[in-house]
Every structure is written in structure tokens, then in C-alpha cells.
Design a protein that fits this description.
The complex is a heterodimer of chains A (255) and B (157). Chain A is an alpha+beta fold. Chain A has one domain: Thrombin, subunit H (Beta Barrel), CATH 2.40.10.340. Chain A contains three helices and twelve strands. Chain B is mostly helical and 157 residues long. Chain B has one domain. Chain B has six helices and no strands. The chains are: A alpha+beta (255), B mainly alpha (157).
């Protein structure tokens, strides 16, 4: 019994030790790669599940009902393709000098609710690297934190571990945008800054991960507390994270 | 296929469902924790050997750690402790009634939440998620446990 307890202790010690080494990331990368096939098939069928849930027309004739169902399905498919086309066109029109865009599709998200992480269908093989900024045409999504052979893990700016150097576009004051699961908070902003509701927040380019000028969101609430050293504000992110489907990974061109 | 390989494949499938299909039924920004529910259900199977239950919990925890972006070991240790607790009080706890399903799933989810709080976040803990997640997981446990019980009965026949 004691021997078993010691074994468990050693197991958990080694497991936590994994976090200190690159081996942990490697294992994670392999695991996501294994999961990829499940994720892709389930992700596409998840859309179909909701299509099937739509109310069907009540027709008397069974054959016609079936035909209508088929046609409805085709319309939905075409609509889906049209919307995807539109989104991709919008995405591809986005250009950032000295960066190339790698389009990718979101195939899943974090297995627990305490992190805001999504998985992409592109990995090392497609040129994705760690710390690449990820965007949509609406604005900044996050950065790549782990890469598998054919999948990548992206930490969204909503994640509690995310930090983005930010700039208030109107006043040019700098701060840091932190994630808090449901939205973002702008912190370390000058206490006497003339920040106003609706001000646009962009990435400052400091830190070397995110390029300057990526749209993060707009100020929704300002917390003015004179006892604090810095000003804090809530931000409404520009990207709709609930409906994240296609994204662009920005790869820096070597000078 | 051996039983252990089968349960590993099953766990990967459950994790995939959690990461894809359950995204569509998010409520207050949270989705129910299927992996946790599976572990709880398995821990309540009195006819299962202790070793098998712990192995199942450890696999589930490792998969969840690997696919959630958290540091390795958090979910594994949490599942391990949860199983130890359930097995220890298995003579007094019953997974019999819908209310029982709800409360056991609710409390298990709360326990996992507090475990994350202690090990990971402290000051920046997203408390706003704790109750919705636990309640949603509790509600989701009612059909899920019923389904698992039926599947178990079917397999036993």
C-alpha cells in the first residue's frame, strides 16, 4: 500500500516536472495530432447536427418531403459555402507588410472551461511556428503557443494567461491587455490618461510577438480609482470569439 | 483490442466531442465537462477493480491536461483525488436518482474548479465560470448518466 502511494507520488512529481521541459509541449503536440482526425470529422458533423435540428416543412407526401429536405440541405450547403467564401475573401484581403498570411481553420477548442484556447488544422508542415500572431479580418485573435505536425494550439487574447502590449489609438497611451475569460482588460495605463468609452485599442508592437496596429477592441468601461497607480478599463474585443471559424496566422518574412 | 486500449480510444472520442460538438451548446460561455462525468460514473461502478478505475481516471486526466492548454498534472491529480474520495465513500454514496446525478456532478465540478483555483490562478481566478459550469455539468449529468447506465445494462446483457 505504502509502496503504491510512493509510486503515485513519483508519478505526479514526474508529471509536474514535464512542464519545466520542452518534452511536455512535444507530448501535447503529439496528442493534438492524434486528436486531429476526430476533431475534423466531429467539427464538420457538429454543423450538420444543427442543420438537422431545423424544423422541416409538414408535407403530406413522403417523397416530396424527402425531396424538400434534400433541397434544403443543398441550400444550406450552398449558403455555408457562400459565407465561407465571403469570409475567406475578407481574410485574404488583409495584408500586413513584411508578413505572409497562412489561412487556417478552427477545428476545436480547449477541453476545459478555464482556458481560452483553440486548435487549428495547420501545423509545422504548413509553416506554422510558435509565437505567430493569429488574426481575423475583424482584429487580433491571439498567438500560437504550441505546434504539432499538422495542428496548432492558439491562445486567445481572452485567456487569463494572455498579455498583449496595447496602444490607445486616439491618445497614444500604452498599456497591457490581459484576458479574463469572457472579455479583456486594459491595465497599466497612465492614471491621468484621457481615456474615453469607445476609444479604439490596437496592438503597440512592443514585445516582439504582435505587429503594431492590430485592432484589439473598444473601451467599454473605465474604472477610475485615484488610489490605484494605474488606470484600468474593460475592452469589448473586436473579434466574435463565439463564432471563430477561419483565421490567419501571420508569418514574419525574414529581412 | 484490449480493454485498456478501448477505454483510451473512448476517452479520446469523449474529449473530441467535448472540444467540438459541445461548443455548439455553450451556455454562459461554458460547456459541460464530459470527461469529468465519465470519470465520476466509472468511479461509481462498484464491480470495477480499484486499479482499473484509477487507470481510467489517470488516462482521462492526462488527455484533459494535454488538450486544455493547462500545465500537465492539474487535471490528472484532480481526477485522482476525486476518484479516491468517491471510492472511499462508495458505501454511502449512490448514483441512483436524477437528483443524485445532479448533485454528485455539481459537487465534482465544484471540486475541480476549486482545485484549479488553488493550483493555477488564485488572484486572477475566473470565479464567474465556477457556478455556471458546475450547474450546467450537473444538469447535463442527468441524461448522460442515464445513457451510460442504459449502455452498461445493454453491454451486460
Amino acid at each position: 500500500m505504502i509502496k503504491r502511494k510512493i509510486l503515485f507520488l513519483i508519478f505526479f512529481f514526474l508529471l509536474f516536472l514535464l512542464n519545466q521541459h520542452a518534452l511536455g509541449r512535444k507530448v501535447e503536440g503529439y496528442l493534438i495530432d492524434i486528436q486531429r482526425y476526430f476533431l475534423i470529422s466531429l467539427n464538420s458533423s457538429s454543423k450538420e447536427v444543427w442543420i438537422l435540428r431545423r424544423p422541416t416543412l409538414e408535407e403530406e407526401n413522403k417523397r416530396l418531403r424527402k425531396r424538400i429536405k434534400e433541397l434544403e440541405q443543398r441550400i444550406v450547403d450552398l449558403e455555408e459555402a457562400r459565407q465561407e467564401n465571403e469570409r475567406l475573401r475578407g481574410l485574404l484581403s488583409f495584408k500586413k507588410p513584411s508578413y505572409i498570411n497562412i489561412p487556417a481553420q478552427v477545428i476545436g477548442e480547449s477541453a476545459d472551461n478555464w482556458r481560452r484556447i483553440v486548435f487549428l488544422d495547420k501545423g509545422k508542415r504548413d509553416g506554422i511556428e510558435r509565437d505567430m500572431p493569429v488574426i481575423t479580418k475583424e482584429g487580433l485573435v491571439g498567438k500560437v503557443v504550441n505546434v504539432g505536425l499538422r495542428t496548432a494550439e492558439v491562445m486567445l487574447i481572452l485567456d487569463p494567461g494572455s498579455r498583449v502590449g496595447a496602444l490607445v489609438q486616439r491618445t497614444r497611451d500604452t498599456g497591457i491587455v490581459k484576458g479574463n475569460i469572457s472579455s479583456c482588460v486594459l491595465t497599466y495605463l497612465d492614471k491621468y490618461s484621457d481615456l474615453q468609452k469607445g476609444d479604439v485599442i490596437i496592438s503597440s508592437g512592443k514585445g516582439g510577438v504582435y505587429p503594431k496596429g492590430l485592432f484589439i477592441g473598444k473601451v467599454s468601461r473605465i474604472e477610475k480609482n485615484l488610489n490605484r497607480l494605474y488606470l484600468e478599463a474593460s475592452i469589448n474585443p473586436a473579434v466574435d470569439f463565439h463564432h471563430l471559424e477561419e483565421v490567419l496566422c501571420l508569418k514574419k518574412l525574414s529581412p | 483490442m484490449s480493454k485498456k486500449t478501448l477505454s483510451l480510444v473512448l476517452l479520446i472520442f469523449i474529449a473530441s466531442v467535448q472540444m467540438t460538438l459541445l461548443r455548439q451548446i455553450k451556455f454562459f460561455g461554458v460547456k459541460p465537462d464530459l470527461l469529468l462525468l465519465s470519470v465520476v460514473f466509472f468511479a461509481f461502478l462498484k464491480e470495477k477493480k480499484k486499479e482499473d478505475v484509477f487507470a481510467f481516471g489517470l488516462f482521462a486526466g492526462l488527455i484533459k491536461d494535454g488538450l486544455s492548454g493547462n500545465i500537465w498534472g492539474v487535471n490528472t491529480l484532480a481526477f485522482f483525488l476525486l476518484i479516491s474520495f468517491i471510492r472511499h465513500y462508495s458505501q454511502r454514496l449512490y448514483l441512483e436518482h436524477y437528483l443524485g446525478y445532479f448533485f454528485i456532478a455539481f459537487l465534482s465540478s465544484l471540486f475541480i474548479g476549486f482545485f484549479h483555483y488553488l493550483l493555477l490562478y488564485r488572484s486572477s481566478f475566473p470565479c464567474i465560470l465556477l457556478l455556471p459550469e458546475s450547474i450546467y455539468t450537473g444538469i447535463f449529468a442527468i441524461p448522460y448518466f442515464s445513457l451510460l447506465k442504459r449502455a452498461k445494462r445493454f453491454l451486460c446483457q
